[in-house]
Amino acid sequence: MDKYRIRFSKDGRAKFLSHLDLLRIFSRLARREDIDLVYSSGFNPHAEIVFSAPLPLGMTSDAEYVDLLLNGPADENELMEKLSRSLPEGITPLKIRHLEQGEPNVMKNVDFCAYDICVGFEDARSCNIFPEAVERCLSGNGPVFTMKKSKSGTKLTDIRPLIREFGQDLRASEDGSYQFRAVLAAGNENNLRPETAFRGIMDNINGIDPAEADDGGNDGGEERAENLLSCKILSARKIGYLDRDMKELW
Amino acid sequence: MSKLYIPDEILLKVEKPGRYIGGELNSVVKAPGEYDVHMAMCFADVYEIGMSHLGFKLLYHLLNDQERVWCERVFAPWPDLEDVMREKGYKLFSVESQSEVDRLDMLAFSLQYEMSYTNVVNMIDLAGLPVRAVDRGEDCPLIFCGGPSANNTEPMADFFDFYNLGEGEEMLPEIVETYRQCKAGGMKKTDILREISRISGVYVPAFYETFYDDEGRYAGIRPKEEFKDVAAPVIRKRVVSSFENSYLPEKMVVPNIEVVHDRIMLEIFRGCTRGCRFCQAGFIYRPVRERSPERLAQAAEKLLKSTGYEEISMLSLSTSDYSKLGELTDRLLEFTVPERVSIALPSLRLDSFSFELMEKVSAVRKSGLTFAPEAGTQRLRDIINKGVKEEDLLRSCRMAFEGGWSTVKLYFMLGLPYETDEDLIGIAELAHKVLGVYDSVHAGRKARRPSITVSVSTFVPKPFTPFQWAPQIPVPEIIRRQNVIKQHLSKRVNFSWHDPETSVLEGAISRGDRRIGSVIYDVWKAGGRFDAWDEYLNYDRWMKAFEKNGLHAQDFNMRERDIDEALPWDHVNVGVTKKFLQRELSRAKQGIVTPNCAEKCSGCGVQSYGRGICVGQIQDPVQ
Questions:
Q1: What angle (nearest 5°) sits at the alpha carbon of residue A135, between those of residues A133 and A138?
Q2: Would you report the helix, strand and coil content of chain B in percent, each value rounded to 5?
Q3: B289: which strand partners?
């Protein structure tokens, strides 16, 4: 049996396809393209297809991974060609690698994930003070509390230890929005979503009690006092996984 | 590929945005210049329901296989999206080109159930078009319909330009080609409709006028003087000239998101030999016609190659009645086994042959066997012509329990004509006997707790059945009868039932006449949509709309009709004669069973088509 890991991107309308949708899409594709997948034994055999952590619906990505277990070795170029022509619009295979015996799951060595976050500002002032305000928020001594979902439910969590980089390289896009890089905890141990980090930091800067802030707390900003930072997250794109030494994963 | 019509920030806030994005495998996109007729197949419910209908997908591919035609798909947006669309000024859009549909040439609605009618009206309005056909001008698309519910043309007659009565495979190519020529000739809408009306099986409601008697009852319909040259007094349903050779697509659009029925569906035969007296499908899809195992297996293999589906399901009204089931299964297994594709055999009657078959296809997921005795006593089963005997059912259950099954679902109907409390108690007793069989099979041994479910739906009398004259029972009586069953049922049996209000409204619409159109309009105007979904149905809204129009729902659903009174669907000929249906009603009253068509022809009238298993049979109109 041979295992292949494929890194792929998810763009455009494909961002509305869920993890389960992808599983169905890959297993049907294998049948159409005669990709000889290994099936589990048992009553309801299923193809051995393993994905990296599920991408939230609506997020685009350059760093999705799938491991396919095949009954024998395959020509990597041919496999890539089959995937390219048969995957739905927006899902593009980027590279392929034959895995060694016993190589661990993608998520095993992941500690961080880099994102490009796209935001919009209500006013020029907010835009000007953004990097400095974020820097001040993250470099202080106090915790940055926000409501965060975890396996044990949604609770107040200090997210500062989970943020490696955020908002320091703010750059303007052609359409009037702004982009910056964020590096957040990811993997099996800790995981911080870009929206959660963004909300936590904004509430902290604007002095909003995170326990009382509703979901749309950062959205409008119309009812805020004038000296506050008014910024809205528009979208996020996953750029790549990093290990503990901040080395990007294959 | 085109841009999405609805912007991302809206799609991200609605449920299941995958419904609206298109881009599915085998969906058809044509370039401008490749087509002269631009149309859409429309389904008046959400994507996941519409994409589960074989007929809808089949006709979509058939139309796209026509020269110079591009057919897209349109579904009803779920209310969460619709509310935003209306607020922000978005219109109904197509899946493929992601564009507004009000400039298309034709919109074809597939009418599958009456409770979706308010959605039809809502979709036309959301498209930015006047909902009534009479108000739609020259620049509006022609809006038409087909499908099982379309056979009673009248309740929706106000909204459609024309009806396709009969099998779409046969009629649609002719309709679009006629339209194409008319359009090329620069013809006006009424003239185009005149031309389309000449096609056999087409009904143009605006060409007819209806009559009512002094008591306000429907009295009949006839072509208006000025349309007599093109409008036939009676429209005869069309059927394909050869079912064996009729259209079977080699490709089928594969949804990206999960839909209700997500598999290859193989229509093994059309029609039904059984003639259960409550079942509309059993009459309107006659004559009974089979496809050969060779052709079916060939088509299935191609579909598998083009879709990659993991399951093939046989589709018909009664799988066991397919004469070459064993041969077909063997042929399918030749390629499904190596491809790890499973075969589903729905609505199978359980006997030793079918057990063997199920073992063969290893469809032995030991959860979920279903039986449909439909009625609780032999007396009532004979009245409805459901040829199931208690011994057969119990024998099947014994076989199943011995084979390791422990979950059985029993389907029944409530409110059938001539039903008494004894019949309802009979439902409970039958369930208890099934339970007894389970206990006896496992006597003295430790066994899993069985899961026996009694599921009771409410009978709705339908046009083109022997019970089309029968009264429906009112809501309080439905509830009382549900309770009778509940009271007599052991706690060891699960009980599920249907919303009674949905059933009586369905009853009023399905046997309604043209005046029901105003009721549907008013319900829609008052906010009605997705009435097929319990959470959106508002019974009072319907009652108010009936009242506003001076009509009584009871006149349509709860009144026993005179055997010779004019029925709003008398001008549609589905092949089965009114005489035959009258005969069947009288046999029902006497509890006389009518034999299966495969054994003996009872002269239903459909032999006149000269197709299917009827050919060559001696007609014996049993009295």
A1: 110
A2: 40, 15, 45
A3: B270
Q: What is the rounded CA–CA span in Å between residue B423 and residue B375?
A: 7
List CB contacts (< 8 A) between A12 and chain B: 1
Long-range own/partner contacts, residues A104-109 (CB < 8 A, 24 or more apart):
A105/A50, A105/A67, A106/A5, A106/A52, A106/A65, A106/A67, A106/A241, A106/A249, A107/A52, A107/A53, A107/A187, A107/A188, A108/A188, A109/A243, A109/A249
Q: Are residues A79 and A135 in the same domain?
A: no
Distances B395 to A39, A44, A152, B368, B390 between C-alpha atoms, Å: 37, 28, 50, 17, 8
Give chain A positions within 8 Å (CB) of B25.
Answer: 28, 88
Q: Are the beta carbons of A13 and B365 separated by less than 8 Å?
A: no
The total of structural domains in chain A comes to 2
Selected residue of B10, B19, B256 to mutate for chain A interface (largest A Cβ count, 10 A) = B256
For residues B619 and A164, the model is more confident at A164
The values of phi and psi at residue A142, to 5°, are -75, 160
Statement to judge: residues A229 and A155 lie in one domain: yes
Q: Give the tokens for residue B425.
A: 């108690």
CB B158 within 8 A of CB B517: yes
Ramachandran category for residue A221: left, alpha or beta (phi over 0 → left; psi -120 to 50 → alpha): left
The pLDDT of residue A220 is above 50: no
**Tell me, what's the pLDDT at A227?**
60
State ipTM. 0.89
Inter-chain residue contact B256 with A57, CB threshold 8 Å: no
Average pLDDT of the residues in A5-10: 97
Q: What is the pLDDT at residue B364?
A: 46
What is the CATH classification number for the domain harbouring A6? 3.30.70.580
Contact criterion met (CB below 8 Å) for B317 and B282 = yes
| One domain for residues A62 and A156 | no
Which of A11, A15, A16 should we substitute to test contact with B (largest number of B Cβ atoms within 10 Å)?
A: A16
CB contact under 8 A, B306 and A21: no
Q: Tell me, what's the pLDDT at A221? A: 43
On the question of pLDDT at A223 being above 90, the answer is no
For residues A65 and A140, state if they share a domain.
Answer: no
Q: Which residues of A touch B304 (CB under 8 A)?
A: 31
Specify the DSSP element, H or E, that contains A10.
strand A2-10
How does residue A217 score in pLDDT terms, banded at 50, 70 and 90? very low
Residue A248 is assigned to a structural domain of this protein: no
Residue A7 confidence (pLDDT) above 90: yes
What is the reported pLDDT for B569? 98
- Residue B22: list chain A partners with CB under 8 A: 13
Task: Return the pLDDT at A213.
Answer: 63
Nearest CB neighbour to A20, from listed B24, B258, B309: B258
| pLDDT(A246) > 70 | yes
Give pLDDT < 50 ranges for chain B: 364
Q: Say how many CA atoms lie within 13 Å of B186 toward its Cβ.
A: 0
My answer on whether A97 and A130 are in the same domain is no
A22, A27, A31: which to substitute to probe chain B, counting the most B Cβ within 10 Å? Answer: A31
- Report chain A residues touching chain B, CB-CB < 8 A: 12-18, 20-21, 24-25, 27-32, 39, 43-45, 57-58, 88-90, 234-235
Same domain, A34 and A117: no
Buried b (16+ CB within 10 A) or exposed e, B553-580: bebbbbbebeeeebbbbebbbbbbbbeb
pTM of structure: 0.94
Give residue A88's domain range.
2-108
- Is B460:B149 a contact under the CB 8 Å cutoff? no
Residues near A124 by Cβ (< 8 Å), separated by ≥ 6?
Answer: none
Average pLDDT for A159-184: 93
CATH architecture assignment, domain B8-165+168-236: 3-Layer(aba) Sandwich (3.40)
